[in-house]
Amino acid sequence: MGTEGATPNSSAGLVPVRPGGAGAIIQAMHGKGGMGIEIPKPFSQPICLVPDTRIAGTTHIDDIDELAPKLSVGERLALIREKDNRYDEWCIRVNTSTGGRLGFVPADINEIPARLMDGGKALYAEVNKVEKVGGWWKIGMGVWLDD
């Protein structure tokens, strides 16, 4: 039985995608833009890229005194790539899981994680230390690749 002239329908298990060649196939596989299906990674394994670093720039965060005390060791943090940052071409912002801005991955170690993110890899951070040193919040973290 041929598929020529077939139209996608949900009863056949097909998923409609927007035109776009290979990009449409990836979109269908990963459910981008509200279309497609979610395919779990069967053998997902977190890989530690940076076991121990700090969140840079915490002194420039207005509400850091409210955010930092609520963090706990082992808490997952979001990493957001900022390609258009005018100060650092490899900039990666660090946010709480609820979107609160904490600072940045330090510039001396951010190039490889940024390149991985630019290549479509999923990275995240985990808190490994929270302490107040004088008037400064020292927040330690590890950087992980979810692969």
Topology (elements, then pairings):
Layout: H1 22-30, E1 46-54, H2 64-67, E2 76-81, E3 92-95, E4 101-104, H3 111-118, E5 122-133, E6 136-146
Antiparallel strand pairs: 1-6, 2-3, 2-5, 3-4, 5-6
**What overall form do the CA principal axes indicate?**
globular
Largest sheet: 6 strands, antiparallel
Quaternary structure of the protein = single chain
SSE sequence, one letter per element: HEHEEEHEE
CATH architecture designation of the largest domain? 2-Layer Sandwich
Query: CATH top level of the largest domain?
Result: Alpha Beta
**Sequence stretches where pLDDT stays below 50 over 5 or more residues:** none
Structural class: alpha+beta
Biggest β-sheet: strands ordered side by side in the sheet: 1-6-5-2-3-4
Gist of the model:
The protein has two domains: 1-39, no CATH class; 46-146, Alpha-Beta Plaits, CATH 3.30.70.2330. Helix content is 14%, strand content 31%.
What does this structure look like?
There is one protein chain. With 147 residues, the chain is of the alpha+beta class. The protein has 2 domains: 1-39, no CATH class; 46-146, Alpha-Beta Plaits. 14% of the residues lie in helices and 31% in strands. The protein has 3 helices and 6 strands; from the N terminus they run αβαβββαββ. The chain has a 6-stranded antiparallel β-sheet with strand order 1-6-5-2-3-4. The mean pLDDT is 84.
